[in-house]
Amino acid sequence: MNMFSKIVIPIFIVFVIFYGFKKKVNIYDAFLEGAKEGLMISFNIFPSIIAMVFAINIFLDSNFVNAVLGVFNPILSLINIPLEIMPMALLRPISGTATLAIMNDIFIKYGPDSYVGRLASVLQGCTDTTIYVLALYFSSIGVKKIRYSLGVGLFADLVGITVAFIITMLFF
Amino acid sequence: MVSYIWLFLIIIGIGYSFLTGNLDIINDSILTNGNDALDLMLSILPIIVLWTGIMKIAETSGLLRKFAKLVEPILSRLFPSVPKDNPALGFIASNIAANMMGLGSAATPFGLKAMSELQKINDKKDTASVAMITFLVLNTAGVTIVPTTVLALRIAHGSVNPSEIILPGVIATFCSSIGGLLLDYFIRRRSNK
Predict the structure, then answer these.
(1) Same domain? A94 vs A132
(2) Which of A43, A89, A93, B86 has the most CB atoms less than 10 A away?
(3) Residues A77 and A35 grouped into a single domain
(4) Looking at beta carbons, which residues of chain B come within 8 Å of A128?
C-alpha cells in the first residue's frame, strides 16, 4: 500500500515524458510552455489566497471554533473526529482557497503527519468546490433554473467527506 | 456567495475576539497575515508550475486526448441523452482527465466548452438539462488521483511520506462520484415515469 503511493507519481512522470519523446514532441519546450501557464495560474490565484488567509486567520485566531463549536466536542470525539477539522468540512463545498488556508493552519499547528493533518489532506483532495463550479458553469451559458443539481452535488460532497473520515480512520 | 463567507469569517473573528477581550491576538494576526499567505503561496507555486509543465507534454503528445478516448464509451452510457458523436462527450472526457491529474484550472476551459455544447442540444435554454446535471455531479465530485496543492503543502511542512494520502483520497473521491451519480440516476428515473 505504502509502496503504491510512492511509485505512482514517478512512474506517471516517466511515462508522460517518454511518451512525448516517442511521439517526437519537443518535450523540453512543451514543459517550459506549460510551466509558464502554471506560473500565470499561480499568479492569478495569489490575490484570492491573500484574501482567504486573511479572513481564515482572523476567524481561527479568535478562538471562536474552540469556544462555540466546542459544544459539539463530546459527540465529535465519540466518533473520533477532531474539532479542528470541522470548519474545513463545512467550507469545503464553498471555497477551495478557504479550506486550503485552514489546511495550512492545521499543518503549522499539528504537522502534516498528525491524524488531523492527514484527515485535512484527504478532505482537501476528495471533492471540488461544488457551489463555485455550479455558479461558474451555469452562468457561463445563461442557465438560471438549476433544478436538483445543487442537491445532488452537495450530496456527493457529503458522501465524499463521510468516506474521507472513515477511510482516514481505517488507514492511519 | 464567497463574499458572504468572507464577510462572515471576518466579522465573527473580530466580533468574537472583541467580546472576549482578545483584540491583541487579532491585531497580531492581521499584521502577520500577509506572511502566512506568502508562505502558503511559495510552498504550492513550484509544484503547480512543475505539474502544468509535465501535463503540457501529455497534452501536446496527445496522451490526454488518448486517455479521454478511453473513457468516452463509459461516458456515452452515463449520458444517454447526448448523441454518441457529439463533441460534448470529448470535452467532458478531457475535463475529467485533467481533473484526475490535479489540473483543476486546466480542466475548467474543457468544462466550459462541454457546457456550451450541451446547451446547443438543450430544449429549454434557461433550464439545466439532465445531461448538464450529470456532468456537473461528475465534475464536482471529481476523481482526483494527484492532488497537487495538497502534496506541495505536505512536502513544505516536512511530511515523512507526502504521498501516503493519495490512495485514501482516491477511494473517498471515487465513493463521492458513485454516490452522486446514483442519486442523479434515481432522480432521473423517477422523473421519467
Answers:
(1) yes
(2) A93
(3) no
(4) 99, 104, 139-142
